[in-house]
Amino acid sequence: MSESVTAQSAKSKGASKYDLLNSTVFFNGRFQKYAETKIGLLTHALHYGTAVFEGIRAYWNEDHKQLYVLHSRPHYERLRASGKILLMDLQWSTDELVDVTLELLRMNNIREDAYIRPILYKSSEEIGVRLHGLSCSFAIIVVPLGPYVDVDSGISCCISSWTRIDDNMMPARAKITGVYVNSALAKTEAIQNGYDEAILLTMDGHVSEGTGENIFIVRDGEFITPPVSDNILEGITRKSVKILVRDELGATVIERPIDRTELYIADEVFLCGTAAQISPVTSIDKRLVGDGKVGPLTKKLQDLYFSAVKGYNLKYKDWIVSVY
Ligand code: PMP
């Protein structure tokens, strides 16, 4: 059910006409062709995982004939914060980066749902594990992208046998490429064991997050999500969900540690993230969540979320920026 985003799959997901190699990217301050962008074999980030990145979504609204980029500023601000943790400076202001993103989407004539991938990486071509005294490079790539995980029928999850990395080992709060080995181990284990997605626990056994999503549970009408100190990425969708739950559903959001077995008895569970959007979880470790169907509050939240991100709800117009 889940799909990955690769150079090949960018062509295959309802995006048959998108020619990635011939697409335009932003690389170190210039617009150039993807195929003409070369990265050296000894690039530090390739060997040591020393890069930080983002995933930003753009939604095509056929009624408005408009492409809306979602939360571009918070994503670039988080990229800057991730870079700071790895001693890398983003040379461009957030306004400049948003402008470049809009320009790239226009240059590639993107008129469908899309994904924007900015990456800031240690580009020195030399041997030696460290963070200091290295040059860095920056790129933005755009690709068409449909659903990443199922958002309609609900997904099955397992608790991973892999533990979420701890802040004092590798900070989950920064979106660091190397950190995603932890997610990749968990994701592949889940898929190979017949599940759609993995949920990782912290070292002390509390629920942390999915491999590329934050998690919420609903118990007795209250929405509960792990605190930022439980080794999660401080999700931008998580923040939007909190706003929608409070302002639109009039329900309470509680941030507190969640036990593993609370997942088994929750009324509803969902994952959320830029790529995953709001993805209902209908079973965990072979136990049905609620009655095993998409929960009513999750469904309401999904409707509210999609209406906001696709530009239908003007109350949330500051979440999006128009491309055309
Ligand atoms: N956790 C992880 C590990 C992620 O990779 C993501 C996706 N960026 C999220 C949570 C959700 O974050 P956001 O809502 O900002 O996309």
Topology, element by element:
Blueprint (H helix, E strand, L loop, with lengths): L8 H4 L11 E4 L2 E4 L10 H5 L2 E3 L2 E6 L4 E5 L1 H14 L8 H14 L6 E9 L13 E9 L10 E9 L16 H13 L4 E5 L5 E4 L3 E6 L2 E4 L10 H12 L5 E3 L4 H6 L2 E6 L3 E8 L2 E2 L7 H14 L10 E3 L2
Parallel strand pairs: 8-9, 8-15, 12-13
Antiparallel strand pairs: 1-2, 1-7, 3-6, 4-5, 4-6, 5-17, 6-7, 9-10, 11-12, 11-14, 14-15, 15-16
Helix pairs in contact: 3-4
What does this structure look like?
Residues 1-16 have low confidence and may be disordered. Strands 8, 9, 10, 11, 12, 13, 14, 15 and 16 form a nine-stranded mixed sheet that branches. Strands 1, 2, 3, 4, 5, 6, 7 and 17 form an eight-stranded antiparallel sheet that branches. This protein has helices at residues 9-12, 44-48, 72-85, 94-107, 180-192, 236-247, 260-265, 296-309, and strands spanning 24-27, 30-33, 51-53, 56-61, 66-70, 114-122, 136-144, 155-163, 197-201, 207-210, 214-219, 222-225, 253-255, 268-273, 277-284, 287-288, 320-322. The longest helix is centred in the first third of the chain and has 14 residues, at 72-85. The chain contains eight helices and 17 strands. It has 324 residues and is α+β, with helices and mostly antiparallel strands. The structure holds 4'-deoxy-4'-aminopyridoxal-5'-phosphate.
Tag the structure with descriptive keywords:
eight-stranded antiparallel sheet; 324 residues; binds 4'-deoxy-4'-aminopyridoxal-5'-phosphate; nine-stranded mixed sheet; globular; 17 strands; D-amino Acid Aminotransferase, Chain A, domain 1; D-amino Acid Aminotransferase, Chain A, domain 2; 2 domains; alpha+beta; disordered N terminus; 8 helices
